[in-house]
Amino acid sequence: MGLGTMIGAGIFVLPSVAAQDAGPASIISFIGGGVISLLAALSLSELATGMPKTGGSYYYVNHSLGTIFGCIAGFSMWIGLMFASAFYMRGFGRYVASTPQNIAIAALVMAAILIAVNYRGVKETGFLQNIIVILLLVLIFVFIGAGFFKVDLSNLDPFVSKGWGNVFTAIGTLYVSFIGFEVIASSAEEIKNPRKNLPLSMIAAVLTPTALYALVMFISIGTLSTPSLAQSQIPVADVAEIFLGPIGATAMIIGAAFATISSANASILSASRINFAMGKDKILSNWLNQIHKRYRTPYRSILVTGIFILGLIALGVKIDTLSRIAGFSYLITYILVHISLIVMRETKADDYNPSFQVPLYPVVPILGIISSIAIVALMSSTVQAVGTAIIVVGII
Q1: What pLDDT score does 2 carry?
Q2: pLDDT at 231 (0 to 100)
Q3: Can you give the pLDDT at residue 187?
C-alpha cells in the first residue's frame, strides 16, 4: 500500500522541476524530503498503534489537540490532496500530449474519468495495485541499471550550482512525492501484529522511494545535464531514450501514465474520505455526508473534491505551484502530528497505550517540527500566502 502511493507520479514528473530549482544538488533535496518523512512516519507509527482508528493524521490531531487543530489538519490534508491530484493529472497530460492546450485537455479528461470512477465506487483491487507497483519498480530498476554506467560525472559539477538555500527550498517542491505513507497509518486497525509490522512498513515505504528518487535524479542529471533536464516536459522518458532508445522511452511514457493515474485515483479517494470524516465529526456540514442510494459512495464529497481539482487544472495553475502547495499543506499537518505525539506522551492519557514507541523521544518529534517549519519558512511568499489562507479557512 505504501509503495503503491509513493512510487508514483513524483518520480516521473519532478526531476525536471527539481533540476530547475536546485541543479545537481536536488539529489540532496530528495534525500532531505525522505528524512523529514521518516521523522513523520515514526511519530505516525506510535500514534497509529496508540489510537488504531481510521482517519490517519486528521483523527490523531483532532483527538489529541482538539477541534480547531483537527480542522486545520483535516482541511490541509483535503486541500493538499486536491492540489496533488491536479499535479498528477498535469503530469499525465505532459506524458501523453505535447502542446500546452492538449496537455490541459488530456489532464481534464482523465481527471473527469477518475472522478466518475470514484463516484460510482469502482474499487481498485489489491491485486491490481500490486501489479502496477511491480511493473513500475521493474521499469525504475531497468532505468537505474541501464543508466548508471552512462552517467557523465562532469554534468554534476558544480554540484551546488544554485546555492544551498535552493537545495532546502526544493524539498518543499518535492515533498508531494512523500505523502503516500499516510495510507498505512490509516489502516492501523487492519494490520496484523501492528507493533512490529506498522512501523517497519512505514519506514520501508519511506526509505525505498527515497533511495529510488535519489538514484533516478543522479542518472537523469548525469545523463542529460541540468539545463536540458530542466527544460524537459517528460524527463524520465527523455533520459531513457539516450541509453534505452525509443522502446525504453515509450516504456517510461506508459509507466508514467499508469503512475500518474494510480496516484491521482488514490488521492481523489483519500481527499473525499477526509471531508466525509470531518462531516461525520460535525466539523463540516452533514450535507457532504450524503451516501448515494445506488453506489453507496459519499458522492457529494467526491463531486466537491472533483470540481475543485478540475478547476485547478482548467485555471492552468503551474505544475510546480501545485506540488509546492500540496507539500506545504502536508508539512503543516505533520507539524501538528509531531505536537500531538508530544501531547499524548506527556498527558499520559488512559486511552493511549501504543505498542510501538518512537525511539529517542523527544528528539525525533522536535526535529520533525523544526525541520518542517524550516522548509515551510523557505517557501515562496505566494505559496505561504495560499497555505496561510488554507489554515485560516480551516480555523473559521
Answers
A1: 77
A2: 92
A3: 67
- CB contact at 8 A, 26 and 183: no
Dist CA 244 CA 46 (whole Å) = 44
In sequence order, what DSSP letters do the residues of 341-394 get, joined into one string?
A: HHHHHHHT-TT---SS--TTTTHHHHHHHHHHHHHHHHS-HHHHHHHHHHHHHH
Pull the grid cell for residue 396: 473559521
Q: How far is it, in rounded angstroms, from Cα 72 to Cα 53?
A: 19
pLDDT for 188: 67
The C-alpha cell at 347 is 498527558
CB 317 within 8 A of CB 326: no
In this structure, which amino acid lies at residue 155?
A: N
Please give the model's pTM, rounded to 2 decimal places: 0.92
* Residue-range domains of the chain with CATH: 2-395 (1.20.1740.10)
- For residue 129 the three cell numbers come to 495495485
pLDDT in tens, 28-55: 999 999 999 999 999 999 998 888 776 7
How far apart CA 390 and CA 396 sit, in angstroms, is: 10
C-alpha span between 58 and 4 (Å, rounded)? 21
Hey, what's the cell of 133? 507497483
Phi–psi pair at 121, nearest 5 degrees: 85, 30
CB 226 within 8 A of CB 24: yes
Residue 285, judged by CB atoms within 10 A of its CB (0-12, 13-18, 19+), counts as exposed
Q: Give the span between the Cα atoms of 376 and 361, in whole angstroms.
A: 23
Q: Which residue's entry shows cell 497555505?
A: 387
Cell 506524458 appears where?
A: 95
pLDDT at 172: 92
Q: Which residues of the chain have pLDDT under 70?
A: 54, 122-127, 129, 186-189
